[in-house]
Design goal:
2 domains, 180 residues, 4-stranded antiparallel beta sheet, alpha+beta, 3-stranded antiparallel beta sheet, 51% helix, PH-domain like
Length: 180
């Protein structure tokens, strides 16, 4: 079995949307207070905390190229809404958290003797009989399907994961011959 990690190029966009969700939750909290007649809740500390988390995340992204997972904050916002008896906002936050976690997952293409698993959502299993050609060349993986679709991705390797191109291409050629 061969596994290839492909870079998630939209991860920064997903992170910005997640921060937007958190900010909308804070804004909703601020606007909901007069309607519910609750004692005024000072959202300044929460707002300052969100700004600090965003700044820290930007710093980490520029220095290390990584982003922190903020899904727990989205869930905490949902729990807060549940405590105020806005169950539908809890459910909305759980749904948005699930989408966030799906978007931040590691994208891995897997090739084995039965199929090639492509990391869409849900994962797409492409049978060898539906593939015209598979080539790994210069860290670019190309899947050419019989329905004229082509998937092409740059592969991300760690030092331990490097795959021998000739060996992989030979494996794919054999699978294509067996399943044609």
């Amino acid at each position: 079995m061969y596994q290839f990690i492909i870079p998630n190029k939209k991860i920064l966009t997903y992170q910005i949307f997640a921060y937007g969700i958190i900010i909308l939750n804070l804004l909703g909290l601020f606007l909901a207070q007069p309607v519910t007649g609750e004692k005024k809740f000072n959202i300044a500390p929460a707002g300052i905390a969100v700004v600090l988390i965003i700044l820290w995340d930007l710093y980490r992204y520029k220095k290390k190229g990584t982003l922190q997972s903020i899904g727990i904050i989205i869930l905490l916002c949902g729990i807060f809404w549940m405590s105020r008896e806005y169950t539908y906002l809890l459910l909305l936050n759980i749904f948005l958290w699930a989408l966030y976690m799906i978007s931040k997952r590691k994208l891995v293409i897997t090739a084995d003797k039965s199929c090639v698993a492509y990391p869409s959502f849900p994962e797409k299993k492409i049978l060898w009989r539906d593939i015209s050609n598979v080539v790994l060349k210069d860290d670019i993986l190309t899947l050419d399907l019989k329905n004229n679709k082509i998937y092409q991705h740059i592969i991300e390797y760690t030092d331990k994961e490097a795959v021998n191109e000739a060996e992989f291409n030979d494996f794919c050629r054999k699978q294509l011959m067996v399943h044609s």
